[in-house]
């Protein structure tokens, strides 16, 4: 097993050619360390390298992020294409601005709670178990929401992005080769990101839906590049004006419908029977015949006739 140790660093550096300083002095001054593609499987105690700012460990066999607590000055960490399954042990890296973890076996984006300065996060192309997707811990997303500007989550079977809504400082989102298909969801989330300039959703189901480009162009007012194609500002303004006009016409039509229902409450759901000609009647008499007034009967006369009829 190859371990990254101070002795390995010493043997691989140009320190042996220098006689002006000791190994300890050299390691204390070291700011950049590149051990990519060296079959590294583990990281040993490197605490003497306290001024380290950039660490390249990509294309190795590392399975765990460990022994980096000393690196409080680290700003760039490159650990893509390893065997890492959990994002952990990064809480001391308060100055970290760029984190590269693509091509590992991570299933949950977590462990970022203390990275308040993180500007770039790359977790594309994780080797996920069959049928699983990359998910996001809400606490980590909330913690980096005020700083993160570039996020790469491509090729991770992601089918929704609601959990990313707090990332209102994003300027670049790379989310190609996923399973995103709900255009309404995408419009809702992206419309809240007022600084988004570059967006890549190519090779998602949503990419093939009608009006896909038009809808996202109007939803993202600051977008300059969608799926590798620049957005013409004149075209965007035309689409925005067209959408506003369409919504205004729809609103006017709805208002007319409502007003019509108020003015004619019988228009919907109620139909009067056909009216038949009615003969003229007096308030108390029988229907008139040939225009003559009807004959009025007094109640006392009706009553008397009834009595006489009974006697007869």
UniProtKB/TrEMBL annotation:
Biased composition (Polar residues): 276-286, 298-312
PANTHER family found in the cross-reference section: LEUCINE-RICH REPEAT AND IQ DOMAIN-CONTAINING PROTEIN 1-RELATED, LEUCINE-RICH REPEAT-CONTAINING PROTEIN 9
The organism of origin for this protein: Triplophysa rosa
Keywords, ordered alphabetically: Leucine-rich repeat, Repeat
InterPro entries registered for this protein in UniProt: Leu-rich_rpt, LRR_dom_sf, SDS22/Internalin_LRR
Repeat recorded as keyword: yes
Name assigned to this protein: Protein phosphatase 1 regulatory subunit 42
PROSITE patterns: LRR
Region (Disordered): 249-312
Pfam annotation, one family: LRR_8
């Amino acid at each position: 097993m190859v371990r990254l140790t101070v002795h390995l660093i010493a043997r691989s550096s140009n320190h042996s050619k220098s006689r002006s300083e000791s190994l300890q002095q050299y390691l204390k001054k070291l700011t950049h360390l590149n051990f990519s593609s060296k079959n590294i499987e583990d990281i040993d105690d490197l605490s003497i390298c306290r001024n380290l700012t950039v660490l390249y460990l990509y294309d190795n066999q590392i399975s765990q992020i460990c022994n980096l607590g000393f690196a409080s000055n680290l700003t760039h960490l490159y650990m893509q294409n390893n065997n890492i399954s959990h994002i952990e042990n990064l809480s001391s890296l308060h100055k970290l601005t760029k984190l590269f973890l693509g091509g590992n076996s991570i299933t949950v984006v977590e462990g970022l709670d203390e990275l308040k300065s993180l500007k770039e996060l790359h977790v594309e192309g994780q080797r996920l178990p069959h049928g699983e997707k990359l998910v996001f811990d809400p606490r980590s997303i909330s913690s980096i929401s005020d700083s993160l500007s570039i996020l790469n989550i491509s090729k991770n079977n992601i089918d929704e992005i609601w959990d990313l809504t707090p990332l209102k400082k994003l300027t670049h989102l790379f989310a190609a080769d996923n399973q995103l298909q709900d255009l309404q969801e995408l419009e809702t989330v992206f419309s809240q990101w007022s600084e988004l300039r570059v967006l890549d959703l190519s090779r998602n189901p949503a990419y093939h839906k009608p009006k896909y480009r038009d809808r996202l162009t109007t939803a993202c007012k600051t977008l300059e590049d969608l799926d590798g194609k620049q957005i013409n500002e004149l075209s965007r303004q035309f689409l925005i004006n067209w959408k506003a006009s369409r919504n205004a016409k729809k609103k006017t039509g709805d208002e007319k419908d409502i007003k019509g229902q108020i003015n004619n409450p019988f228009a919907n759901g109620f139909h009067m029977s056909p009216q038949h000609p009615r003969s003229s009647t007096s308030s108390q008499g029988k229907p008139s015949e040939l225009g003559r007034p009807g004959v009025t009967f007094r109640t006392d006369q009706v009553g008397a006739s009834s009595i006489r009829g009974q006697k007869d």
